[in-house]
Amino acid sequence: MIQHFHFKPLYKNDLLPGWAISFYYKQQLFRAEYKKDGQIAWLGDKPAEEHISSVEKMVHELMLFHVYD
């Protein structure tokens, strides 16, 4: 489960899509950029390969809820 999910726009103009995101997963901090097409560009460490698809799905759901609602 993702905890302490935060996001903020990458650009001062809020109309331009792209967000900096950060969250904890399994007690480890992860940072990424969420692109306008839904791609996630990991900054630094990324979740283990066996968890990455489920983490990305959770991130997409959170972004849909918070940004695209």
Automatic annotation (TrEMBL):
InterPro entries: UCP037692
UniProt name for this protein: YheE
Source superkingdom: Bacteria
